[in-house]
Design brief:
The complex is a heterodimer of chains A (227) and B (396).
Chain A: E1 5-18, E2 21-34, E3 38-42, H1 49-56, E4 64-69, E5 72-75, H2 83-93, E6 94-98, H3 109-113, H4 125-135, H5 150-162, E7 168-172, H6 180-195, E8 199-203, H7 207-211, E9 215-220, E10 223-225
Parallel strand pairs in A: 3-8, 3-9, 6-7, 7-8
Antiparallel strand pairs in A: 1-2, 1-4, 4-5, 9-10
Helix pairs in contact in A: 4-5, 5-6
Chain B: H1 3-11, H2 15-52, E1 57-61, H3 65-73, E2 82-83, H4 86-91, E3 96-109, E4 117-124, H5 129-132, E5 138-141, E6 151-154, H6 156-162, E7 169-172, E8 177-185, E9 196-199, H7 200-206, E10 212-213, E11 215-220, H8 226-234, E12 239-243, H9 244-287, H10 289-297, H11 302-330, H12 332-342, H13 356-382, H14 386-395
Parallel strand pairs in B: 4-9, 6-8
Antiparallel strand pairs in B: 1-11, 1-12, 2-10, 3-4, 3-11, 5-8, 6-9, 7-8
Helix pairs in contact in B: 1-11, 2-9, 2-11, 2-13, 9-13, 10-14, 11-12, 11-13
Classes of the chains: A alpha/beta (227), B alpha+beta (396).
């Protein structure tokens, strides 16, 4: 494992039981991602890419295999982490971006960005202003989500993911709800994040967006497929 | 930004639903506070009315004791008669400090109201009656000095009704005799406000009731054994003893029986409001299932989510409870008028006595009920796994 490796997955598997049938959603996936690297995960629907992203983000436990994030063994170590410890890892290491934004409609842009601070000691208003400035939404800070365009809402969601200073941003179809112009904007933002040393792992069906990454992982039937 | 601010803003998402639920809680709080206030006000009013009578035991001619008690509380003294000699007999008891004889007489007055009504005159003793009613103050004039004088003292409302002042003549219908008004009382807030007082001997003569009384008020010496006195008075022929303590207990027992039923209704209203809270908050949790999962993926602990949803319940119940109690204060006089309309006897003064203790108790009960209702939805929300939220997003 190189010194600047942030994510290191070894032989990760996720097996579901569907009645008597065993479904291997992710089957022995190993990969590493370095600090400031942009990795895209592509593959057909049901290939296991979101399941892999969830395991990397400590939202789902693998059936087997190991995962370390920022040098900390999360799965596959001597001791299984408790839910509280996993929450702590999520707080410290990750920012999540989803296709549907999930902004709270009655909170302003700034309040949505500061939302994690309601649950733990996260950076305050100054950090929120910095992040808004970075994403070009500072003039919208007092607006409600309903007053924003889709692209602006996704920027707010990205700002919310960045407020706790994560090492890794995980994005699941971040441009899935956006038109091509907004997609280009988000592509640029994700690339900017990597320049600040943040690792970005995104799942996408958009091949153009995927090609903008430093590395593409193609998943088929739960396994990494090397073209 | 804190959990409580988020909770408050969450409630604003569905304003109509929040308002309806808070309205249901407010209604329960209103019923609860009004009933508690009524219980206190009625008890205080009854005590005040009885204390204002100036005597602890009343003797009347034999008859229905409840009729006698009701007449007495409404300003009458019963319309059966007992001999005047009973005064001497009663005075022989060592527990007795003072007695005051009374003779009530009613006359039909065809000019009173639209279809005529009974005008009631209370004959009282010029010497013993005034000291028993020390709270009565005069707007004009003073008490009559002579029990035979054809004079009258009018209660505040009686004077307003008859439009009489000191020095005016007052015609007694039926017998066509006039008495001179020598005093008009200030408003006392008691049944005395509507009473026309005449000297007792004059009333006996005017209405041919010489040697007869309708009631005898007995003031007992301090620390004397009232029960022992009452037991001896029970042995007197043709009279019945009405103990004010018993009257108080009897009326309160009747009121308490009614109160149990009404409190039951208030309890049902509270349960319905709690069901409304569970429904509203649970629905809100279900609608935000994915969002709650996202909050947990952002680092919210189950306890954080629990607190957030519970805070929503607390805010909803707090606002509804406060509004309901405020409404109870605003509508207290209206509730009082409604209660007076339905009750055969209601004491004078404020009948719905709301205060800080009652408001605090009602608010606490509503809040406790609400928080209890919020436990299940909050627990459900706390159990949402972040992954489920993302799965739901994928399925949508």
């Amino acid at each position: 494992m190189a010194n600047n490796t942030v994510i290191s997955a070894g032989n990760l598997s996720k097996i579901y039981k569907r009645g008597s049938e065993e479904v291997r959603a992710v089957d022995g996936v190993s990969f590493e991602a370095a600090a400031g690297e942009l990795v895209s995960i592509i593959g057909p629907s049901g290939s296991g890419k979101t399941t892999l992203l969830n395991m990397i983000g400590c939202l789902d436990n693998p059936t087997s295999g190991s995962l370390s994030v920022g040098g900390r063994q999360v799965f596959g170590g001597h001791k299984e982490l408790s839910e509280k410890e996993l929450t702590a890892v999520r707080r410290e290491m990750f920012g999540y971006v989803f296709q549907k934004f999930y902004l709270i409609p009655t909170l302003t842009v700034e309040e949505n960005i500061l939302l994690p601070g309601a649950f733990y000691k996260a950076p305050g208003a100054k950090a929120a202003r910095d992040v808004m400035g970075l994403l070009g939404i500072e003039k919208r800070s007092g607006h409600l989500p309903g007053e924003l365009s889709g692209g602006e809402m996704q920027r707010v969601a990205i700002a919310r993911a960045l407020i706790n200073g994560p090492k890794v941003v995980l994005a699941d179809e971040p441009t899935g709800s956006l038109d091509s112009r907004r997609t280009e904007e988000i592509k640029g933002i994700l690339r900017d994040l990597t320049r600040q040393g943040i690792t970005v792992v995104m799942v996408t069906h958009n091949l153009d967006l995927a090609r903008s990454a430093d590395r593409i992982l193609e998943i088929r039937d739960g396994k990494i497929h090397t073209p | 930004m804190n959990i409580y601010a988020i909770a408050y803003k969450n409630l604003l998402r569905k304003k109509v639903r929040t308002a309806l639920t808070a309205g249901g809680i407010a209604l329960s709080a209103w019923v609860l506070a009004t009933l508690l206030g009524f219980n206190k006000g009625y008890q205080e009013g009854l005590n005040r009315d009885i204390d204002n009578m100036g005597f602890q035991v009343l003797l009347t001619a034999k008859g229905c004791p409840y009729e006698a008690a009701t007449l007495m509380l409404k300003g009458g003294t019963g319309l059966r008669y007992m001999p005047e000699s009973v005064v001497k007999t009663v005075f022989q008891n060592p527990e007795v400090e003072k007695v005051t004889p009374m003779l009530m007489h009613g006359v039909f007055d065809p000019n009173k109201g639209e279809n005529g009504a009974v005008a009631a005159y209370l004959g009282v003793d010029a010497v013993s009656f005034p000291p028993m009613k020390p709270y009565l103050e005069f707007k004009q004039g003073a008490w009559f000095k002579d029990n035979k004088a054809l004079e009258a003292v009018l209660g505040y409302e009686a004077a307003e009704l008859e439009t009489r002042e000191v020095g005016d003549k007052l015609l007694i219908p039926g017998i066509d005799r006039e008495v001179t008004v020598v005093g008009v009382l200030k408003r006392s807030g008691t049944q005395d406000d509507g009473t026309i007082f005449l000297p007792i001997t004059a009333v006996q003569k005017l209405f041919n009731r010489e040697g007869l009384l309708t009631g005898l008020g007995i003031k007992v010496k301090k620390e004397a054994d009232i029960t022992a006195l009452e037991n001896r008075l029970y042995d007197l022929p043709d009279v019945q003893v009405v103990s004010m303590a018993q009257v108080k207990t009897t009326i309160m027992n009747l009121v308490n029986s009614a109160r149990v039923i009404v409190m039951g209704i208030a309890g049902i209203a509270l349960i319905i409001a709690m069901a409304g809270v569970i429904n509203t908050i649970l629905m809100s949790v279900m609608e935000r299932y994915a969002e709650i999962g996202i909050l947990k993926s952002m680092g919210a602990m189950p306890l954080d989510v629990f607190k957030m949803i519970w805070a929503e319940t607390a805010i909803l119940c707090g606002l509804g409870g406060a509004a309901g109690i405020g409404l109870a204060f605003v509508t207290a006089r209206l509730s009082e008028a409604a209660v007076r309309y339905f009750l055969p006897y209601a004491p004078n003064g404020a009948l719905v006595a709301l205060d800080g203790d009652i408001s605090g108790f009602a608010f606490g009960l509503i809040l406790a009920g609400g928080l209890l209702s919020g436990l299940y939805p909050a627990w459900r929300a706390a159990r949402v796994r972040p992954l489920e939220a993302i799965r739901i997003e994928g399925e949508q």
